[in-house]
Structures are given as C-alpha cells and as structure tokens.
Design goal:
Length: about 260
C-alpha cells in the first residue's frame, strides 16, 4: 500500500499543476480578502452606522474569504488528481501495476491529504496577509488579539483541505475531467450562490441552504459573507464538516460502484 501511495504522490509532483493552482488560489483569496475588508468597512462608514458590519464580524468574514469563494481551486484539483488518469489513459497502467482497484482509489485519496493541508494553510495565510493590513487601514483593526480570529483561520484551513477530498470523491464519480471540473466550477461559482440567495429570501426553505456544500464548508470556519449579510445561517462546525465530507463520501461510493469499476479499453 505504501508503494501505491508513493507512486500517487510522484504523479502529482511531476506536474506543475499542483503549485500553479495553489498560486492562483493564493492570489485570488488575497484579492478577495483585501477588497472585501476595504469595501465593507469603508462602504459601511459611507452608508451610515446602521449599515456597518461590526468590526469583529467583519474580521471573521474577511479571514474566511477562501472558504466562501476560493474553495473552487482545491476541489477542482482533487477531482483532477483522479480524472487525469482517465484523460491521459494511464489508468490501465495503474491497475496493471496494482490490480486491486480499491487500493488504487485509497492511495489516491491518501496521497492527496498533504496537498489538501498545504492548500488549506496557504489559503488562510493569504487571507491573513491581505486582510489584516486592509482591516487596519479601514480603521477597525485586524482583530489579531481575538481568539475567534485564529479559530476561524485554523478551521478555514481545515475546510479548504476537506474541499480537496470532496473533489477526489467527485472525480471518482465523474471520470471525464472536463465534465467534472466545469461542473464543479459552475456549481460553486454560479448555481449554489444563486440558490442560497434565493433560499435566503424564502423563509420556509431558508434552513435548507445550511446543508448545501458551500454553506457546510463555511460552517466549518464559522463565518462567511452570506451569514454576515444575513442571507444564510450556518451549522455548527462539526456538523458542517460532516455534511461537507458526506458529499464527497457519497460521490466516491457511487463512483466506485459505477464508473471506477468499469472495464478498461
């Protein structure tokens, strides 16, 4: 099993994709965190105190920018780790070297874990590096002396790591690389935000929004733009993590029973 895991890690490290996507994520999260801090703080001051976000809530919202919008990068990378074998038709070689496909699937998941953690830490570091100066410039302070700030940053890293594992699950379910990556981008960046906003204005259905994957990831961090704006409530952190990983587990289980066990040609 250890040989299979090492093999999967080498496959990831031999391409530039893992660090290129991480770099794109860091830049995106930094821009989001910095602009959100300045726009919300300065916009609230201009509109009046009644529309301003409390400084502590604003800080948590800024530091969770990656979990709110930047998670598309780790989830896409997780899917690519699996689907690249099918896209480049190297899956035949992989199963010839290790005929037990269960081990191949588990090795891919385990090999992704250190990269998932690296993405999580990089995301929180980017939000902190860009958000703290922007909050200080806006005048309310970076709130670095508040334990809740560090809790959000730490749990935000966990949420981003979990998103990559979810991506592995969906890559197992949909082995067509283009289809799964495009589908994940469309869902995370367009469909779910619109659904959450719509449900936020429909009181009877509003609780459903808490169980959507994006909301579950935000619940792990304990803060988000949607909750700060009053558009969505969040689950407890443990429940959010369970729901988020549950999506990946269900996708992986279905994929294992269907696409991953098909005959290779």
């Amino acid at each position: 099993m250890s040989a299979a895991i090492r093999s999967e890690i080498r496959k990831i490290l031999t391409t530039r994709l893992w660090w290129a996507l991480m770099l794109a994520m860091v830049v995106s999260v930094a821009v989001l965190a910095g602009s959100l801090a300045l726009a919300t703080a300065l916009g609230g001051e201009a509109a009046g105190d009644e529309l301003a976000v409390p400084p502590d809530q604003l800080a948590l919202t800024v530091y969770s920018a990656g979990v709110t919008l930047g998670y598309v990068f780790p989830v896409a990378f997780g899917a690519i780790v699996v689907t690249q074998e099918f896209r480049h038709r190297t899956i035949q070689t992989a199963v010839l070297a290790e005929p037990r496909r269960t081990r191949v699937a588990i090795a891919k998941l385990v090999a992704t874990v250190p990269f998932a953690l690296a993405y999580g830490v990089a995301s929180s570091a980017a939000a902190l590096a860009a958000g703290a100066p922007a909050l200080a410039l806006a005048g309310d302070g970076a709130m670095l002396d508040d334990p809740a700030t560090w809790r959000t940053l730490g749990l935000g890293a966990v949420a981003m790591a979990a998103w990559m594992l979810v991506g592995v699950g969906f890559g197992t379910l949909v082995t067509n690389q283009v289809a799964v990556v495009v589908g994940l981008i469309v869902w995370t960046q367009i469909v779910e935000p619109l659904v959450r906003i719509a449900l936020g204005y429909w009181e009877a259905a509003a609780p459903i929004a808490r169980f959507l994957p994006g909301a579950a990831g935000e619940a792990v961090a304990g803060a988000s733009f949607y909750s700060a704006a009053g558009l969505s409530d969040l689950l407890p952190a443990w429940a959010g993590l369970a729901v988020l990983l549950g999506y990946g587990l269900v996708a992986a289980a279905i994929g294992w029973r269907t696409s991953f066990r098909r005959d290779l040609t």
